[in-house]
Amino acid sequence: MRYFKSDNTAAVCPPVLAALIAANQGASLAYGADDWTARLDTVVGEFFGASVRVFTVLSGTAANSLALATLCPPWGTVLTHREAHIERDECGAPEFFTSGAKISVIEGPYAKISPTALRERLAWFEPHVHGVQPKVLSLTQATERGAVYTPAEIATLAEIAHARGMSVHMDGARFANAVVALGCQPADVTWRAGVDALSLGVIKNGGMNAEAVVFFTDGAAAPAFPTDAVSEFEFRRKRAGHLVCKGRYMAAQVLAYIESGVWRRNAEHANRLARQIGVAAGARLTAPVETNQVFVKLGSKRIAELLEAGFGFYPWAPENAGEARFVVSWDTATEDIDALCAALATN
Amino acid sequence: MRYFKSDNTAAVCPPVLAALIAANQGASLAYGADDWTARLDTVVGEFFGASVRVFTVLSGTAANSLALATLCPPWGTVLTHREAHIERDECGAPEFFTSGAKISVIEGPYAKISPTALRERLAWFEPHVHGVQPKVLSLTQATERGAVYTPAEIATLAEIAHARGMSVHMDGARFANAVVALGCQPADVTWRAGVDALSLGVIKNGGMNAEAVVFFTDGAAAPAFPTDAVSEFEFRRKRAGHLVCKGRYMAAQVLAYIESGVWRRNAEHANRLARQIGVAAGARLTAPVETNQVFVKLGSKRIAELLEAGFGFYPWAPENAGEARFVVSWDTATEDIDALCAALATN
Amino acid sequence: MRYFKSDNTAAVCPPVLAALIAANQGASLAYGADDWTARLDTVVGEFFGASVRVFTVLSGTAANSLALATLCPPWGTVLTHREAHIERDECGAPEFFTSGAKISVIEGPYAKISPTALRERLAWFEPHVHGVQPKVLSLTQATERGAVYTPAEIATLAEIAHARGMSVHMDGARFANAVVALGCQPADVTWRAGVDALSLGVIKNGGMNAEAVVFFTDGAAAPAFPTDAVSEFEFRRKRAGHLVCKGRYMAAQVLAYIESGVWRRNAEHANRLARQIGVAAGARLTAPVETNQVFVKLGSKRIAELLEAGFGFYPWAPENAGEARFVVSWDTATEDIDALCAALATN
Amino acid sequence: MRYFKSDNTAAVCPPVLAALIAANQGASLAYGADDWTARLDTVVGEFFGASVRVFTVLSGTAANSLALATLCPPWGTVLTHREAHIERDECGAPEFFTSGAKISVIEGPYAKISPTALRERLAWFEPHVHGVQPKVLSLTQATERGAVYTPAEIATLAEIAHARGMSVHMDGARFANAVVALGCQPADVTWRAGVDALSLGVIKNGGMNAEAVVFFTDGAAAPAFPTDAVSEFEFRRKRAGHLVCKGRYMAAQVLAYIESGVWRRNAEHANRLARQIGVAAGARLTAPVETNQVFVKLGSKRIAELLEAGFGFYPWAPENAGEARFVVSWDTATEDIDALCAALATN
Prior knowledge:
Structural class of chain A: alpha/beta
Number of helices of chain A: 13
CATH class of the largest domain in chain A: Alpha Beta
Strand order of the largest sheet of chain A: 2-8-7-6-5-3-4
Largest interface: A-D, 54 and 54 residues
Largest sheet of chain A: 7 strands, mixed
Distance between the termini of chain A: 21 Å
Strand content of chain A: 15-25%
Oligomer: homotetramer
Radius of gyration of chain A: 20 Å
CATH architecture of the largest domain in chain A: 3-Layer(aba) Sandwich
Helix content of chain A: 25-40%
Order of helices and strands of chain A: EHHEHEHHEHEHEHEEHHHEHEEEH
């Protein structure tokens, strides 16, 4: 099969694998008391140019859900886009971790939230006990449709959220792809723009099974989350079975991902090849190709033919829409890209 | 103040109060082992012409949430209208009781769900672990916009739901108003049309603090809920603090409400007076007046004037829409209706 | 049947019923915006001689569980006696409301916790994420074995709890019986002794279906609960279906219970008659008769005979222990007491 | 430091690391649709000589909690030993995953449950809604005190549990150590003895971050769990963030652990060295050395001296008891054992 189903079909990239092997020397204290975990705050802090508290977890779902549970009480609501992963693809994990908080969805093209749409949605919530209270705005960077938010767009949205007393969470499952696409600094689309907590994706872009939750503890303004949020997070992580005992293998992945610079190289590779597919798709694109995902209107017949021809990809929901999603990974072969582009050209 | 805020501002109606006083004789076994509770299944069963299991709870929120928790696993989703009480007005209670199931909303005029809209929404759910699974359709009868579903409409919706393996729940906070409006039998809009579980409202239409959850255990087809649902319900109710020890005062309300026929008289009164307001509102009505709620486009200025003049009512969300809701109760005074109609006439 | 099963088999006492009838005049704002609810903080505050926030709920289980959920995070633990109602008789309601906090039990005669036992239990908890953290001490007054804590005993226990950063909750399902037995002021066994939150029982001692949760907001020291606890409580109550719409009927019960003085009269009556049973039981008593519960070692055969003779009571757990519990209510008839005493005398 | 704190301070053993490296070739379908995961049921089934369903998760806490949540409803209770990991060391994770089920503890030497103690504890639960219902018996093999249950002991306990309608769960964090100590087959202490679900530990005995939950679907009798338990498990795992996208790296660990036979070699090594420590400890042992944990009464002074001398280990709770726990890993160096034995010899 030629793999375009998702970037999570990729292998572990060499620097991360090498770090795991290197970490496998002798005994080491468990539950995060190891030397690798000890360096996390510093290394990730330098990556963002900010004071941070960093926690590893084992999946993006856990990263998002634990961050949201820390920021949102059970009677709160998380505002996000209708196509957001936390709404569509986590089987209610945020509701489970938050003990029943509600996700309130917002519409918008390319899975992006506009300031107008955010304000309109917020107008429906009233400050009384009969309704859930807006507590978190969750943005996905890059979005589930491959789009990116600019630093200015994030700042505007965060300002609206903060003015309402909400925290800002970013689902950065494809954060590196977004930063590379924008040509900006990691800080520009996070704390400098008002993001309070980030799910920093590692796995899709070359990691094995470690993601990082980053709390920005000294943003432009005071952080918009409770002062005991970090302590809460640790208890919640333990209760969720995401405090692994051999913590060095978690931290080592994150450290290698950042310190080797592979986060950037992998994302650049994937974004570049995605643009090639975009060129081949031409007018059939249903969204601009800004990162490593490509959405193409092919029709159900053509989709079936491509699947038959050995291309692995998902018809996008709802299934009868005739739309396909192609995702490029850090290790997608040029040959597979060429084959897909050729196939797209012949129709 | 002239009360049009909600039918829950009303007092307890005479037959229900008399029943409470009559029940207050000597000792009685606790936790539902009393003589009043013993008659519930029979009396409510006759009301519906069906085999039922009936449980009293202390609020409509509890009735809905406990029923939904029994019908929907944590990884399930309840499909309902965007304006449904369970979505908009219960502060996430269904999410709390279900341990984090998700409510998925459907749009439609007058807070009604159409078969087309239901089918379209269902098309988004896929049978895999990444997304929540549709498990319950919840209809409100009468709706939050005062509309009613006909027996045929319910049957069509229930058929779609059952075909997908879902249960059908009805939020009947204003069930009596709907039945009276339709001129049908209680059975026609419940089990005969495919409803599996009903939150039977008593409080708004003259009760004090008892609602009834009704499970139809021998509907047209086999009931669309797990065979141990009733046992589950009892444990869930206990854990929620809704199994009251002096159960006779709960059951007595429900029995008196049904056996005295006051459910019908009260609803007829309220519906009739609501129609008077509807006539006065004329073209400014934003929804047909089918039961005891009246929605009128008045503009923010006129709303402010009426509030100032001593009419108690809610500007409908969002607040800047200039729309007002007037609700008539079983004990709304003719004088208040006349005053409101006169006020609406003068503009 | 002669009712000694529990004080919750009793009817509603006259002052409370009269108050319900009196409250049933015309319309009234819903959800606690009524005139009765408005007086709660003042009347209950005067009862305790303290600043309080008072919330009505519909059962003792709800009162305890909502109070505990407000005071204890999911990763916390509530220390209480092994025979406490929250541990033995609420089917896990505290765990449900707290989203999975743990109850940690302590042993001790007469269902009382001693300072030594409390200190020993606390020694097992360590300040790390691997174990739950002690957050609340919950005392029952009077205990499930009919015993009372003196003001000094409570103060000692509360001091230990507060020194560990814990809050102190009191399950006062039979609070009036305890106060009457001690001959003290309500303040002496609550805020003056360090209690932070109280489940004030009304139902067992003559109410219909209203209990009160009382937060002491200016105890001897700063209150040992988060400053936003009261706000949290309101959201949690709503989500649990315990914010009833016709709030006047809840508040009216609590107001009448206190203002009429019936709380004291009813408790005095029940305690006094219980002592008569105690005299008849003599050496077979398994606990001193301090309030309105009497525990007697009768043997399985004698228990069966008394049940057969029409006395309603519970063999105490475990069933094969041959112990019986007799509870006296505000309306237990002298005749029934005489009959029981006579029966106990004849063996 | 010489590491005796826990077997989770060990590195990943060579066969498991080699398997991870070997799995890192090209793309592979995500979320368990990979070739490694496809072999799990077969390989683990052969290991147990039974039909099984196997699911990988990322920690022992998750394995236990997800298994228990599948077997126990929120109103159920899990009976286990007071020193069990699920009670003492998971910060309430089982309560979180089960939506508030209760853990009920049983006492007994060496952290083992006896049939008598189990029966006595069960006598306290009554079949009514006021109390939680016994639904699961959870045994730890080897126990938290290093002891093992024989096949006959497990069978007796399982029979009691099954007769009460309960499932039997085994926390096998140190399952290999127990099997090696008993010289039995894996089947003998699991399905053949009545175990319905097993948390099969891999991490402590040489894995990186994969544990396996095993459901025995055709035990001696019909399996004592709901027929849809396996489907439930998958949804619960997803919602908990334990369905990792790159599933091959999870399955590869479990496959290598079993197929290479390293599970046995590692456990034999650790058990053997533990016995050496036991000999050195002599009469100061507080529990027989049956597996890889050694408990020694040293006194607080001697504990402090050993810690000072560079031995890493935990004073066992409560801290003032003067007892120490030493755990041996698959990679504990002979030199460290010799040093510890020498230190223990000099009192």
